[in-house]
Write a structure and sequence with these properties.
The structure is a single chain. The chain is mainly α. It folds into 3 domains: 1-61; 62-117; 132-210, no CATH class. The protein has helices spanning 2-26, 33-58, 63-66, 71-93, 99-116, 132-142, 168-173, 175-183, 198-210. The radius of gyration is 25 Å and the shape is elongated.
């Protein structure tokens, strides 16, 4: 969405304004100052969106951000912090070094990092420890459509990141990753495309706790 806004600013406002400016100069007419004013305004908008867009592009590598129950709040917070940092550099290019802006942005990032930190332990739902067969059954139905040697989920010709969850040995070795992606957060399956239930996540939590 942010990238679309930036591209639209360029293609529908900034470039047309530039063409009108050039056309006026070539025709010997005085350019309309509102063209430049609008183009500059949209350029400033894009300038402040730069770091938020970079964060949004990279965030898919960090499930603790987008898999959080309040992910939208953190996205807004990161966007504000990114624009605030961009403001520091804008002032810096004008010869002003407002270091307090960087300090406050850094403090805000530390606060968010603390709020987003993974728990020290996975709370296991009450109930008996599941059997290996039960764990493999859940992973086979909910995860293996993507994470198998021959994925059946449309759009995947190979297991993402080379992760295969079809054997007990591999599942055991990848238990910390399973905990991070499917128990401590709802990051996997992506968009819960395979319909993993909370009961199944609780089963995985009990398995993690019993290891």
């Amino acid at each position: 969405m942010l990238g679309t806004i930036m591209a639209a600013n360029v293609f529908f406002i900034i470039i047309p304004a530039h063409r009108k400016l050039v056309g006026a100069k070539e025709a010997g007419r005085e350019p309309d100052p509102t063209w430049n004013a609008r183009a500059k305004q949209r350029s400033v908008h894009n300038n402040y969106l730069t770091l938020p867009v970079l964060f949004a592009m990279l965030s898919n590598h960090f499930s603790f951000v987008y898999g959080h129950a309040n992910a939208w709040i953190y996205l807004v917070a990161f966007m504000a912090i990114g624009a605030w940092i961009r403001h520091f550099f804008n002032l810096h290019h004008r010869g002003r070094n407002a270091w307090w802006i960087l300090a406050s942005a850094g403090a805000a990032l530390v606060v968010i990092a603390v709020l987003l930190r993974p728990g020290s332990a996975t709370p296991a739902a009450a109930g008996p420890a599941p059997t290996e067969a039960q764990v493999l059954s859940v992973l086979h139905e909910r995860c293996a459509p993507c994470h198998s040697e021959t994925p059946t989920e449309p759009g995947f010709s190979a297991p993402p990141a080379g992760i295969v969850l079809t054997s007990a040995a591999r599942v055991e070795a990848l238990a910390p990753l399973i905990e991070q992606e499917a128990v401590s957060s709802d990051a996997m399956p992506p968009g819960n495309v395979t319909g993993m239930t909370q009961a199944e996540r609780d089963l995985l939590a009990r398995w993690i706790a019993s290891r």
